[in-house]
């Protein structure tokens, strides 16, 4: 959305007044990026829900900013565990970004529709490309056919790797900040995955189109309350009073610029009785 030169200028300037000015500009740029990402993500979720049986998700719209399509694709992969392509459908040349899952080479999938592309490049887990807007429907058809032939149901079953057990007493902003110190997350630097046990469900809500997503309020044994979100978990059987063991990421919920700690659920099971 802006040039990276501003960040470089902030690092090298020796004038406090200039540093404050650049920092304020970067903060405003980041705020706008977060808003643009949130808007595009909301629209893209609705778009892919209309074709949720496809083995690869493809969303495209003229409102998506080029600078956020990669972020949106990554979030959709996290939520659905399917390879995802998001396209900023601008003229005269649309820009697309893709993220994949383990075992599926997204660059090869995109290049299978190479005759419709202007340019493309990437690696097995992420790719970018440019395409003329009127050729997007043909591109989608070829890539979806490629995914149908090259992805199995087993490939689309996510295997969870838990990095460590997190005691309920450590679900706090200090732990969140420790996690954020390792950002940015991505290929080669995955986001930490925690397991926390014996969390009591105190509230259950279904969100999104058709109640696809799940929002829980959880109480820890030391009576701290935590919000949790489970994308694509709306059909899971859970009710108030249940005791669960949760596998999750620690996230900062920026909805409506109201920053709160949130557990992003990856899975949960009834707590084991000892």
Automatic annotation (TrEMBL):
Domain DHHA1: 54-148
InterPro entries hit by this protein: DHH_sf, DHHA1_dom, RecJ_OB, SSDNA_exonuclease_RecJ
Gene Ontology molecular function, alphabetical: hydrolase activity; nucleic acid binding
Keyword field: Hydrolase
Domain of life: Bacteria
Start and end residues of each RecJ OB domain: 162-267
A family per Pfam: DHHA1
Entry keyword annotation includes Isomerase: no
Protein name according to UniProt: Single-stranded-DNA-specific exonuclease RecJ
């Amino acid at each position: 959305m802006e040039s990276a030169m501003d960040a470089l200028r902030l690092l090298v300037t020796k004038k406090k007044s200039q540093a404050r000015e650049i920092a304020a500009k970067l903060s405003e740029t980041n705020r706008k990026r977060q808003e643009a990402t949130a808007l595009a993500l909301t629209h893209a979720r609705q778009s892919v829900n209309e074709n949720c049986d496809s083995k690869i998700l493809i969303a495209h719209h003229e409102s998506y900013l080029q600078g956020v399509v990669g972020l949106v694709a990554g979030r959709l992969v996290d939520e659905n565990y399917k390879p995802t392509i998001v396209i900023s459908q601008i003229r005269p040349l649309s820009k697309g970004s893709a993220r994949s899952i383990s075992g599926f080479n997204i660059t090869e999938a995109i290049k299978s529709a190479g005759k419709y592309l202007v340019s493309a490049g990437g690696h097995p887990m992420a790719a970018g490309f440019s395409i003329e807007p009127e050729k997007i429907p043909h591109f989608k058809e070829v890539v979806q056919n490629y995914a149908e032939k090259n992805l199995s149901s087993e490939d689309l079953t996510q295997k969870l790797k838990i990095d460590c057990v997190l005691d309920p007493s450590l679900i706090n902003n200090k732990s969140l900040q420790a996690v954020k110190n390792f950002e940015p997350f991505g290929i080669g630097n995955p986001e930490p995955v925690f397991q926390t046990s014996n969390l009591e469900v105190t509230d259950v809500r279904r969100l999104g189109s058709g109640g696809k997503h799940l929002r829980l309020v959880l109480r820890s044994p030391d009576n701290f309350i935590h919000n949790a979100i489970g994308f694509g978990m709306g059909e899971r059987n859970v009710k108030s009073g249940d005791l669960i063991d949760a596998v999750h990421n620690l996230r900062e919920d920026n909805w409506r610029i109201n920053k709160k700690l949130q557990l992003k659920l990856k899975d949960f099971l009834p707590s084991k009785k000892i």
